[in-house]
Specification:
Two copies of one chain form a homodimer.
Chain A lengths: L7 E6 L2 H10 L13 E3 L5 E6 H7 L14 E7 L3 H12 L3 E8 L5 E6 L5 E6 L4 E2 L5 E3 L1
Parallel strand pairs in A: 1-3, 4-7
Antiparallel strand pairs in A: 2-3, 5-6, 6-7, 8-9
Chain lengths: 143, 143
């Protein structure tokens, strides 16, 4: 059986301290695993790791020169309980110097969302969906 | 407060049916949210969505032509409870036609891991870490 798990999402970083600071400035908490070398943040259902890109490539045995695309093809979503939180959070990201990609707006699927990118173009969506169900850890189990 | 959450990981797909089939063939279960248009798989701590790339770009207001890089800079990890599962799972992925990027080997950090890619070059790591701690949903809370 192949367990259906995403235990860890690792973002390969060109500049770990800069990217770490971005997530620290969001008010997110690191785990005890974090070191000077890399950062591991607690989230509701998956650990988020910021890891040196070169070592991440090496760990997978990949040889790639440079990754420089405006969008990497993967979106991370922060789903919230109340519609008002979408605008509040996008504003807080803005206050922390985050790059707002799309201001909050009502979405075609009946909710509301806005988008930002971290300093290395990882795309985040802040979303409210009227039908989201969360477990006691705040992990979304359905929507 | 900006909630520390990854509620959903969305992979932008060029070919949704092909990518959906890959994850179905792993034995993973879709949620009731899934439709002909896109697939949403249940995992232990975060929902995994396979969504048409063009619409994902549109939803974020991004204008990007084509994304074609050998590695996107993000790795998803499946962390397991027993060291033997790493080799078993990589073999199962191989049997299902998955692209093995790195055969299982002992890792410098004291565990064991192997890597595969789905048909659109999204990188997955199967890892055993002797110090991993999981919650009752199978979500990794520390390692």
């Amino acid at each position: 059986m192949i367990p259906a798990r995403i235990s860890l999402v690792t973002i390969g970083a060109k500049n770990v301290p800069q990217l770490r600071k971005f997530y620290q400035d969001l008010g997110w908490t690191e785990t005890e695993i974090s070191s000077d070398y890399y950062a591991v943040f607690k989230t509701s259902g998956v650990l988020l790791s910021i890891f040196p890109m070169d070592d991440l490539l090496k760990d997978a045995g990949l040889e790639v020169s440079e990754i420089s695309v405006p969008y990497k093809g993967v979106t991370f979503s922060i789903n919230v309980d109340e519609i008002a939180e979408v605008d509040l959070i996008i504003n807080q990201v803005k206050d922390r110097g985050g790059k707002i990609i799309k201001e909050p707006s009502d979405a075609s699927w009946g909710g509301r969302n806005g988008h930002f990118m971290d300093p290395e173009n990882n795309l985040w969506e802040v979303a409210w969906n009227p039908t989201s169900i969360f477990n006691e850890y705040g992990a979304m189990v359905s929507f």
